[in-house]
Amino acid sequence: MVIILFAAWLPQTQSRIFLIGDSTMADKPLVDNPEHGWGQMLPLFFAQNVQIFNHAKNGRSTKSFITEGRWKAVYDQLQPGDYVFIQFGHNDAKKEDTTRFAAPHTDYRNNLEKFVRETREKKAIPILFTPVTRRDFDSTGKYVEHMAIIRLL
């Protein structure tokens, strides 16, 4: 698993990881809830010298994460040597929702580039994660693709 290898690679000094993304990465209630984002489980793979700040939120896209000020809140905290794990995609693909939709070859790409560029401005390290796709099938059982965004990357 890549995360375990990454965890072993981190320096022994204090490290900070910021997570930005959607529900697939977000913290969820632990009581009476079978759903958990992978970012919620991430601290289990790291020693105590690694601080993980999970800013991922359900329903967010690159666009809404920026317009709601969530990216600015992370950006303002970044210090040299911090890591930013970035995973968005399936909410960006929702054409019917103008608050979240980010066209794959323009807005989505530009938003990801913004996260990377601004993370680097702070001398922090951006790491892009492949978006998680939806598993939808039509009435005949054929897979319905929602993630043209993935092909862009």
Considering the chains and any ligands shown, give keywords for the structure.
globular; 153 residues; 4-stranded parallel sheet; alpha/beta; 31% helix; two-stranded antiparallel sheet
Strand order of the largest sheet: 2-1-3-4
Largest sheet: 4 strands, parallel
Spell out the helices and strands N to C. Answer: HEHEHHEHEEEH
Regions with pLDDT < 50 over 5+ consecutive residues? Answer: none
Overall body shape: globular
Could you say which structural class the secondary elements and strand pairing correspond to?
A: alpha/beta
* First-last Cα distance: 21 Å
Average pLDDT over all residues: 86
State Rg: 16 Å
Helix content: 25-40%
Please characterize this protein's 3D structure.
By secondary structure, this protein is an alpha/beta fold. It contains 6 helices and 6 strands. The protein has helices at residues 2-9, 38-41, 62-67, 70-75, 104-121, 148-152; strands spanning 15-21, 50-54, 83-87, 125-128, 136-137, 143-144. A 4-stranded parallel beta sheet has the order 2-1-3-4, with helices on one face. Strands 5-6 form a two-stranded antiparallel sheet. β5 and β6 form a beta hairpin. The mean pLDDT is 86.
SSE blueprint and pairings:
Blueprint: H1 2-9, E1 15-21, H2 38-41, E2 50-54, H3 62-67, H4 70-75, E3 83-87, H5 104-121, E4 125-128, E5 136-137, E6 143-144, H6 148-152
Parallel strand pairs: 1-2, 1-3, 3-4
Antiparallel strand pairs: 5-6
